[in-house]
Write a structure and sequence with these properties.
Layout (H helix, E strand, L loop, with lengths): L5 E9 L5 H14 L3 E7 L2 E9 H13 L9 E5 L7 E5 L19 E3 L1 H7 L5 E5 L3 H4 L2 E3 L13 H4 L10 E5 L4 H12 L5 E4 L2 H9 L4 E3 L1 E2 L6 E2 L22 E3 L8 E3 L2 H6 L6 H4 L32 H9 L1
Parallel strand pairs: 2-5, 6-10, 7-9, 9-10
Antiparallel strand pairs: 1-3, 1-4, 2-3, 8-11, 12-13, 14-15
């Protein structure tokens, strides 16, 4: 039996942060000192993070976040795991906590009605209801709710343009969903702004729905932004809906193309993964910059010059820091 001594936390919180740079430094220092790894965005509109650590360290981290009155209502989605889901810690300041073209929208002021997982489950099959997936193509191609409407978008910032295709649904109850709930906050608010009157969102997203409602009618796997790449959701009536990008056989094994200039996220079966050396095509397989394939199809993101030491107010043990950020 696996020793699931680690936790993976997925969370966000919309709240005003007047000095994001100062808070980034404080937050980063806490992560370094408590062996928390992952990716965290700090912005003037709030926090967004996916992190991993030993269970006791993650408990400290959740207490730390919630001890700040601005983030006291943060809803953490917690998964058990047998190791760190990240190799480093990155805490960055960005204009938004999820990249969109909807910076004018403040979900704290107005957003779709939050549905808890069991409420979503009861409502989703009613005749006057449509289920709307607000995620990108590579996410919903791997897994989505049965009968969900999906949008042909490569990035969430393309969402507003696609809403024009949904005009005929303005008289319906629109139930939006995404991985952890964060995209729905602005997506549902934008739908309201565009004249949709009855708009809802799945609180906590697919991840929370799997944990609290058994994942019923979510078909396929859920794409996640850590080195697990994809996770099971449905414990009631699971079904694989994705096919191998190379050979077309049924597969829910998600891979990033080994060619860093391509790097598309597609399902590739294990046999094709090894045969193609992690590449999505013969062209990518022969690319001179192709990364070594280890069977997972997950590659640590380029740090783009990010310095894990930058901005620390005080210096913890240097050897400890090196072990935390370079393992």
């Amino acid at each position: 039996m696996e020793n699931l001594n680690y936790s993976i936390l997925l969370y966000y919180c919309y709240a005003e942060i007047k000095d994001p740079e100062a808070y980034r430094e404080e937050h980063h220092l806490f992560c370094v000192e408590n062996n928390i790894r992952g990716r965290i965005i700090v912005s003037p509109e709030g926090l967004n993070g996916t992190v991993s650590g030993l269970k006791e360290d993650c408990e400290k981290y959740m207490e730390y976040v919630k001890s700040d009155s601005r983030f006291a209502s943060t809803d953490f989605k917690v998964d058990e795991f047998d190791r760190h889901a990240f190799t480093k810690i990155h805490v960055r300041v960005k204009p938004e906590i999820v990249h969109s073209s909807l910076r004018h929208i403040n979900p704290v002021t107005r957003t779709g009605k939050h549905l808890e997982p069991e409420e979503f489950k009861k409502l989703k099959d009613q005749e006057d209801v449509v289920i709307l997936d607000v995620r990108s193509n590579y996410e919903h191609e791997l897994g989505r709710f049965k009968n969900a409407i999906t949008l042909d978008i490569d990035n969430f910032r393309d969402f507003p343009e696609k809403v024009k295709e949904l005009e005929h649904l303005k008289n319906k109850k629109v139930l939006t969903y995404c991985t952890g709930g964060i995209k729905c906050e602005k997506a549902s608010a934008y739908l309201l702004e565009q004249g949709f009157e009855d708009v809802y969102q799945l609180h906590g997203g697919i991840i929370k729905y799997g944990k609290e409602a058994g994942g019923q009618d979510f078909e396929g796997k859920c794409y996640v932004f850590d080195n697990r790449v994809a996770v099971d959701v449905n414990q009631v009536n699971p079904k694989v809906i994705s096919t191998c990008h190379v050979c077309g056989t049924t597969s829910d094994r998600m891979v990033n193309c080994a060619n860093p200039e391509c790097n598309i996220h597609v399902p590739i079966c294990e046999e094709c993964g090894w045969e193609m050396e992690g590449a999505c095509s013969e062209e990518c397989k022969s690319h001179p910059e192709k990364r070594p394939y280890d069977g997972t199809g997950y590659y640590q993101k380029n740090t783009n010059g990010y310095n894990p030491y930058k901005g620390l107010f005080r210096k913890p043990d240097k050897e400890k820091i090196k072990s935390l950020v370079n393992d």
